[in-house]
Amino acid sequence: MLELERVSRHFGGVRALDGLDLMVPEGKIFGLIGPNGSGKSTTVNLVTGLFSLTSGRIRFRGQDIAPLATHKRLQAGIARTFQNIRLFGQLTVWQNLWVAQNSPEDRAKRGFLSRWLGGQAGARDEIVSLLEFSGLAHKRDELASNLAFGEQRRLELARAMATKPKLLLLDEPAAGMNSEEIGQLRERILKLRDRGLTILLVEHVMELVMGVTDRIAVLNFGQKIAEGTPAEIQQDPAVRTAYLGGGAQ
Amino acid sequence: MEFYYGLAQTIGIHTLLGLSAYIILLTGQMSMAQAAFYAIGAYASGMLTVLWGWHIVPAMFAGAGLGAAAAAAVGFPALRVKGLMLVIATLAFGEGVRLFFFNFDYQVQKGNIKVGPLGGEGFRQIRYFPENGWTSDQVMLFVWLFVLLIMALLWWCDRSRYGSVLRAVGDDELAAQSVGINLTAVKVSAMTVGGAIAGLAGSLYAHYTTHIEHLAFGVLQSIFALAYPIIGGLASVFGTLAAVVFVQGILVEGLRFLGDWRNLLFGVLIIVAMVVRPSGFLDAQMFRNFRRWIGAGRSDA
What we know:
The complex is a heterodimer. Chain A is of the alpha/beta class. Chain A is built from 11 helices and 10 strands. In chain A, the strands form 2 sheets. In chain A, strands 6-7-8-3-9-10 form a 6-stranded mixed β-sheet, sandwiched between helices. Chain A is globular. The relative contact order of chain B is 0.18. In chain B, helix 1 runs parallel beside helix 6 and helix 2 crosses helix 9. Chain B starts with a helix and ends in a 7-residue tail after the last helix. Chain B has one domain. By secondary structure, chain B is mainly α. Chain B contains 13 helices and 4 strands. The chains are: A alpha/beta, B mainly alpha. The interface between A and B is medium-sized, with 32 and 23 residues.
């Protein structure tokens, strides 16, 4: 689904990512973990095109996406959420989802004029079901900036879903959540995978990562130090010293 | 009565000018070239009616079209740069256009006089309305017909998906492109619509004053265009109208009796207005409260 081949990104002398190889298989939840500054968010920004590659290659469904602008990658099927929530604060919950309907199917449904001006019944139904999925139906006319923290996280996930992605990049979706909210998030992520979505989950919260992923890669100083199933990763001595710390269990 | 007609027309034309900047501001961009699109509309439509005898309505659409074309042409290269660079680029374009009209001569013999733009002297005798026997009531209705038309169009646009897309870009460009919005297309389209509205305002201005010259299209005019929507608030087109009434009706005309003190008070009152209502006269919360208030009787409220 998503292949990174010897991907590097340097900022001046800092090697944020250094020759990373990664294969995210279709229909799986792939975890990307590592200490702060290990290159996880840089990976997400490279895949979505907010940063350009220093070297290496990124292929999405066999296509080299390096030359594509960010909005074109979205239309190819790559959506994301942000580590620090970035909603459209002066828009309502409904409008946040409305402006995100930019998938090729949605664009084809709209004509040239109604692409900008109209909203079809089909598009409306999708927003309604996304609001229900996220538990935000009662907040549809609230300004996004007035939502509580957990609701903003849910809305951001719903907004990414409104783009009808094939690959969803979640950048620390559980940051700041309590364990009840993390439980709900886990249910949602599993439901999305069951709908056929491929998910790349960048996360610190082990409670979520270990319980939900099919496979995990561990980064440290811009390089991959381990990859395997959650059980394998938990047993990996290199990971335990570099990331979990000596004796953490 | 003539005085109030004049004031009403000034308010109408300045509202259009403010709205031309409003739609660009929604995308988070600042254009200092609104006076240039205004000038292009004014000169082009004036030349069409005076020199080539066009009817006013097609001449106005031509003026709006040229304003839009100029805005798109400036927008494409300029919107690749951001923030302050865009301000400088549009400022330079605006001054360029003003200086072009300062040096622009194109006169034609008509009867026993020569008509057309004459450089620094300006463009006199844009006498379409008096020549065709329009009364001042008709001129005023005509001006306000277009003001209301544009306000209605923008009000509707604000409720459309396109309006939400504009505001999304204004809110957070990074997030907007991450949900698949093409930033260049959105910003250039907003700029083009803004140019068209400014061109339309210029067409009305030229025919209403009958005499235009380059001094009317300087930087100050561009600043006014930006100030109206900022003072009025970006929540709705009515904010811009309220700000024009406040500035042109109250500050400029209403305080005339103060003589030289007026200019001093002018600045102070604008500062006070911005302190009292930092997000503009009419902000989003006010509209939401209003909507909640009128919708209070409905079951879904």
